[in-house]
Amino acid sequence: MRKLLLGGVVALCAALGVASVASAVDATQTLAVKLDHTKAGTKEKPKSVGKLKVTTATAPGPVNAAGTFTVTNAVIFFDKNLVFNSGVFKACSTSDLATIDTKCKGVAKGQVGTGSATGSALGQTEPLAVKAFNGPKSGAGYKFYLHVTGSTPLAIDTVIVAKLAKATGKYGWKLTVPIPEELQRPSGVLATLTSFITTVSASSKGKPYIGIKGCSGGKLNSKGTFSYTDGTSKTVTSTQKCSK
Description:
Layout: H1 2-23, E1 28-35, E2 47-48, E3 52-59, E4 71-79, E5 82-84, H2 100-103, E6 111-121, E7 124-138, E8 141-150, E9 156-166, E10 171-178, H3 181-184, E11 192-200, E12 203-204, E13 207-208, E14 210-212, E15 219-228, E16 233-241
Antiparallel strand pairs: 1-3, 2-14, 3-11, 4-10, 4-15, 5-14, 6-7, 6-11, 7-8, 8-9, 9-10, 12-13, 15-16
């Protein structure tokens, strides 16, 4: 009897496992991290990367259409040879969506980049504008604000409060980007962010916002971990050649 019960439990667990796998979001997730300049400087004097462009794309699969799921959190890891000089730059003084664009306009007030995104729901697609701002120190890292706006078909206006902090291993830094509820479900409708692009390019006091101090194995490594509304997640990688 005990063997039968045990066998039943094992079978049930196996069935649940299969069901869990079957219900996982079937989207194709991609990440591309590209630098304009990849010739390394030194630890004492890193060279500017020019522009750093981060592109994430979430392509819905045949089972999970756009508008049936979305990314709830993304963590982007950057190569250990990249240097982020957040502390040298002016910190944006606010994360208030009504005033952030005016109070933090320009590098002198904390803006370090721009970008774009695309959201999709109910068969409609909306282009979104993104502005990136260097935030204040937060614990062992720095806040990083992303102001996302759009007008048609839905009014979108929200600030993502991300955090830039040190990472370990072959990654030196990571940017944690929690997607706010109002961007996951604008007007109460679940929307899928099918793309999110941010380009950072700024310098202050003779230092670039992002520099490169070395090149390990001839390439720069990046990684992204994306969590979805169904509780599952996917990890993807990106590489770019570099030189010393």
